[in-house]
Design brief:
- This protein is α/β, with parallel strands linked by helices.
- The protein has 3 domains: about 5-85, Arc Repressor Mutant, subunit A (Orthogonal Bundle); about 95-160 and about 255-275, 3-Layer(aba) Sandwich (D-Maltodextrin-Binding Protein, domain 2); about 160-250, D-Maltodextrin-Binding Protein, domain 2.
- The chain has helices at about 5-15, 20-25, 30-45, 60-85, 100-105, 105-115, 130-135, 185-195, 210-220, 230-235, 250, 265-275, and strands at about 50, 55, 90-95, 120-125, 140-145, 155-170, 180, 205, 225-230, 240-245, 250-260.
- The strands form 3 sheets. Strands 3, 4, 5, 6, 9, 10 and 11 form a 7-stranded mixed sheet that branches. A two-stranded antiparallel ribbon has the order 1-2.
- Strand 1 (about 50) and strand 2 (about 55) form a beta hairpin.
- The chain is globular, with a radius of gyration of 22 Å.
Amino acid sequence: MDRQLLKTFVAVAEAGSFSAAAPRLHCVQSNVTTRIKRLEDQLGGALFERGRGGAQLTQLGERLRYHAEDLLTRFEAAERDLLDAASRSAPLRLGAMESTAAVRLPHLLKALTQACPTAPISLHTGPTAELLSLVWQQKLDAAFVAGPVDASRFQSLVGFRETLVMAQATEPSATAPLLSFRSGCSYRAVAEAWLRSLGKSDTRILDMGTLDGILGCVEAGIGFAVAPQAAVTAYRNAEALRVSALPPAFAISETHLVWRQDSAMTRAHRTLCDLIARPEGEERVSVG
């Protein structure tokens, strides 16, 4: 089967419609329709039922999805292995929490690209729960997440120890909401646990999409945030924020680089682990 056709099929199945799949595939909807029609002609049956609710998989489509995802995963793994063996240019798909990407990764990724100049490196940001799911689904090769880590599923290396703080406006409101990333964010979980310990479990939470947006709203007096001290210090108007320490039980968070137990490491992945383990900073530690 044609790999491009299978990728198109999986994109439609995940997006739920031909039109929503097109931007993911960087093509127009007519191309998506043509590819699905070719695949249906090859298999001799309809793969989707199209209606107002989008594109729903047929019984044949459900069976193909099971095989297609497995075939694409195996193909990509084989391609990475061969690229690594032939030219050391296998790509590395990384994930990271946004605060880690903004504050901790620039120098690390610069060193990685210098050490592995032919290996394409991509970065996806998101909360810990989402990143762990993407690594497990093999859509990311490795990700920086907050611990603890399930050792039965993932190998891990401690990259950074973060000190979490509360950031407020200089004149905070007693009824201000917590500004945080959506559910699945580890720092949000810490903040909620801390608030429960204070008897403030009814504190309102406003979901936001970026760290810069969160701290900007904190500066504007809209709410307060719990974030790594390094990220708060690096904020463009850090002097406008009032920063308070969290109790010791909630203040320390370890950031781990994680990958699947059964995944094969490429040269770029191994180099990244070596760079992390190298004692270049006071807060960077190595774990076997």
